[in-house]
Specification:
82% helix, rod-shaped
């Protein structure tokens, strides 16, 4: 017969291990600012290592990884938005060039018709 309290006991064991090896502020402070893919890799590696050696429990490590994943999505969205804005500016410039050339062509036609 399965033990309905096993989850409580398993969870308590994970907390006990993490409590024996606490994560300290200087561990987090040693990580680079989360501002590049390379920094995100360092954070992911730290989450994995801290979970593996019991500095954080699995739930906390998963939360760290999820937060870094969301950071990556945000960074990707920002890059996409920036690319779209650059494309808009290029399209605007091309439209302005097209309109200017159309006016020059029309003016040349009028001048050619006068002569």
């Amino acid at each position: 017969m399965p033990n309905p309290e096993i989850a409580m006991h398993a969870s308590a064991g994970g907390r006990a291990k993490a409590a024996r090896r606490p994560l300290r502020a200087e561990h987090v402070a040693a990580l680079p600012a989360l501002d590049s893919p390379r920094a995100a890799q360092a954070w992911l590696r730290a989450a994995f290592e801290w979970a593996a050696i019991g500095k954080v429990n699995g739930s906390r490590a998963l939360a760290m990884v999820s937060a870094i994943r969301e950071w990556g999505k945000l960074r990707e969205a920002e890059a996409t938005f920036e690319a779209i804005e650059q494309l808009r500016a290029t399209v605007h410039q091309l439209e302005a060039d097209r309109d200017r050339l159309a006016q020059e062509l029309e003016q040349a036609r009028l001048e050619g018709a006068r002569s």
